[in-house]
UniProtKB/TrEMBL annotation:
Residues 29-48 bind DNA. Keywords: DNA-binding, Transcription, Transcription regulation. The lineage of its organism: Bacteria, Bacillati, Bacillota, Bacilli, Bacillales. Signal peptide: none annotated. It holds the Pfam family TetR_N. Coiled coil: none annotated. The keyword Transcription regulation applies. Residues 6-66 form the HTH tetR-type domain. InterPro entries: DNA-bd_HTH_TetR-type_CS, Homeodomain-like_sf, HTH-type_TetR-like_transc_reg, HTH_TetR, Tet_transcr_reg_TetR-rel_C_sf. It comes from Paenibacillus filicis. This is TetR family transcriptional regulator. Transmembrane segments: none annotated.
Length: 199
């Protein structure tokens, strides 16, 4: 039975995600990706127009921030929108470690692909910043510095991505990702609450 174009594209994307996460973008060849996917090497050019466009396609396919488009109404409300975004970032980090590694590698190295990554990552953090500001203006959140609060929220949202490195400090090492996300969201939201607002 012949493999459909959509199946083959997904196999190539999945192979690229695995290898980019493990070996880095620069350390991975198109040939290695195609060998991993069981695909002809010419298919990367045929489907994606080259390796860099393959990276873009990875973000189109797998990046959690793409869900923002599906939740515009919820994301217009500061409390619910902020909680949703923090939860999605945590789940993304815990459930798709490969994409998380790719984002981390490209941003830490300030690679030539940083701009590609930022096209997807920046709107999420910009939306979080906007929701924090909006929530403070509407009396839902209380904090002094928007910059410091955004840094705190980013740190909390990304912290459990690397919890395995600190496993000797953890009481439990096999957390359910949904439970973990709920706990961290609750901690962040509680810390931001303005006096007199309901939890």
């Amino acid at each position: 039975m012949a493999t459909s174009d959509s199946d083959m594209k997904l196999r190539i994307l999945t192979a690229a995600k695995k290898l980019f996460a493990r070996q880095g973008y620069d350390g991975t060849s198109v040939r290695q990706i195609c060998e991993e996917a069981g695909a002809n090497v010419a298919l990367v050019s045929y489907y994606f127009g080259g390796k860099e466009n393959l990276l873009r396609a990875l973000f189109e396919q797998f990046f959690a921030g793409n869900k923002m488009k599906d939740n515009e109404e919820l994301l217009s409300r500061p409390v619910e929108g902020l909680a949703l975004l923090i939860r999605e970032i945590i789940l993304f980090g815990l459930e798709d470690g490969e994409m998380g590694n790719i984002v981390k590698q490209e941003l830490e190295r300030s690679s030539p692909r940083t701009e590609i990554v930022l096209v997807y990552v920046s709107p999420v953090w910009k939306k979080i910043r906007d929701l924090l500001q909006q929530g403070r203006e509407q009396g839902f959140f209380s904090f002094d510095s928007l910059d410091h609060t955004l840094t705190f929220v980013m740190g909390a949202a990304l912290s459990f991505k690397w919890h395995t490195a600190r496993s000797s400090l953890m009481e439990v090492t096999d957390y359910d990702s949904g439970v973990t996300a709920d706990h961290i969201v609750k901690l962040v939201m509680t810390s931001l609450r303005a006096p007199g607002t309901k939890a």
